[in-house]
């Protein structure tokens, strides 16, 4: 049984990777075996001519669904960096280079099968990408976006399939990364240990290249300009819970007036979540007014600055003290209880997130987050039904 399961797993893994890499040899148009990548296209200087003049037009291939297609990649620690579907116009923050070889601006794109290439307004609404010794184009593609230019990106040298830390990939579980050389954008395929360039119908390849990577060495960050969206606040409350209780006893034969005082210390927990982590060892602060919530009323204090990182909770102790005066009948015992509800306020906010890098860069973006306040509220004190004292000495 184990052998059968392992066999099925092997088949599934093989099928899932068929579309990701070409074999070391593939069939030519006449059915003969050809070596891949094509040795004649290695380290070649592409001709500087218009595609129509060379007679090599990129083949138009529409691949909405690709066999063995894999999950789209996400950058959880760098959420301003994302792949966005092409909708007919460039999204804000599209990542680009100036291609001095062709004298045009090229934008980073990826086709449905995960190969990366270039989009340029000068060449039409297509992503041009390398695959199987040829340059292809498709109108179904994704564009790499760095919203507000917030993530610090840099091109790092690589060779023979090497990639630097934090390299930008196109799909999860695929060893294809955004690359370039002096001739333009393409893909770095670590399986074939080379950079592949789409150019005038052909797929040129090179052993030396540059890889797009995320420069994550920021030394400090701060959150400022916090604006609470008061109209969007939501309140939630739990059922009442017992906070404190006290018994009042009257052994006298006449009604007496008694006062019961109850107290309980509780904790107010507040946190500001922006949905992104903070690198270890980074000095992180927030400057914001502190919301004060009493049941469903809201006030905001003057701005304070304090250390902060995602997941950190700011706490404050609150003591609830309540007194209750009552008349207790002869030979009776009364229980006084204090109850409260755990109340949660969830209020969105916008803020400016600024990061300070070791290389002197300062980058800012608009962040949206949530302020969460959890505390005990709706505190009440009441007397339960008084009961006769068992076996009390009778009154005459």
From TrEMBL:
The residues forming the signal peptide are 1-19
**InterPro entries recorded:** DM9_repeat
- What UniProt keywords apply to this chain's record, in alphabetical order? Signal
Q: Which parts of this chain are annotated as the region Disordered?
A: 24-43
Pfam family name, one: DM9
Q: Which SUPFAM superfamilies match?
A: Aerolisin/ETX pore-forming domain
Q: Give the compositionally biased regions (Basic and acidic residues).
A: 24-36
The source's superkingdom equals Eukaryota
Name used for this protein in its record: Natterin-3-like
The organism is Pleurodeles waltl (Iberian ribbed newt)
